[in-house]
Amino acid sequence: MERKKGISANVIVLGVVSFLNDVASEMVYPIVPIFLMSVLGAPALVVGFVEGLADSISKILMAFSGVFSDRSQKRKPYVVWGYSFATFSHLVMSLAGTWPLVMFARVINRTGKGVRTSARDALITESSDKVSRGRNFGFHRTMDSLGAVVGPLLSILVLKWLGGNYRMLFFAAFFPALLGVLMFVFFVKERKKKPLGLTGLRFEWSKANQSFKIFLLISFIFTLGNSSDVFMILRAQSLGLSLGLTIFTYVLFNSIYALLSLPAGIMADKIGARKVLFIGFIMFAIVYLGFGFINSSVWIWLLFPIYGIYMALTDGVSKAYISKLIPHEISASAFGIYQTLMGIGTFLASTLAGALWTFSGVRTPFYFGGVMALIAAFLFLILTKRVRVAQPRA
Known about the structure:
Pfam families: MFS_1. This protein has 394 residues and is mainly alpha-helical. It contains 15 helices and no strands. It has a single domain, classed as Growth Hormone, Chain: A (Up-down Bundle). Helix 3 runs antiparallel to helix 14. The protein is globular and about 55 Å long. The relative contact order is 0.17.
């Protein structure tokens, strides 16, 4: 597998695969909360529980799949199975007539993400050299977020063509996802590596330095206020935006995310991921506090783009930051541990947001999220002044 400064061939293919998978997923995702509440009559508390449960299962599985991937030093099988689960979930969603079946479909979809993500991130790490990991992760996030732009736009066209038939839209999402699986199987290459020869599920904490552990703590605090994006979609609708305009604001967010992901990765390589992540935390606080304070839908058109800036500054960059804190032989496990903690935090955040929305009003979840982001940003600024970079294995 060729390594070079810049973006590797493997990462380019992985980017295309992620694009196709995200086209499929984002044809479905922004519609799910509307489908649950408008068609199936579910309350916001159920919406938060469904998304929180699905995301938490996804991220908890990342730890297990990451450990197994590191033990075997194999990445590709986990990614294949992960994308296959996600593809199958669209068929299940097309049959959903009650919210528990929607939850089942979402759990299958997020299970796929949980199985594949740590191994895929490790594959990106192994496919790029250390000085260009920011741009490699940034390119991958760019392609992923481009899919998140195309997917919602396709959903508008498909819904119009199908006369607003949500279930047929979910069925249509199966096909780009299937194409992505086939591309990965035939075009992504993986070098054969010797298994580590370790057993069990224990993460090798002795190889993880203090800087990594501090980042885990701060990220968990931040995530407690970072509820599912479906609440921003529902907030936009609560301010009077139509379904079409709500989806367009979501497309605008993903467009900014796509445009800035690669530049953010390059900036992280040049000035350091720590500075970029701190700015991202502040952007998130601005967005969530804004969603809490606004009284007019006009502000939605500003806040969603700022949210795109936050995502670009943190998503791929956080992985590049972690990759410099841990040895490559435990990279999948480290990504998995990180995602597991984020999963627990996401479940708590989304369930709490649903409860706050239902019992305390639509503004309260965003006030809480904004305050938690400011606390995390302050801790990040204070506690990560001296970052210990992982040393290569002898």
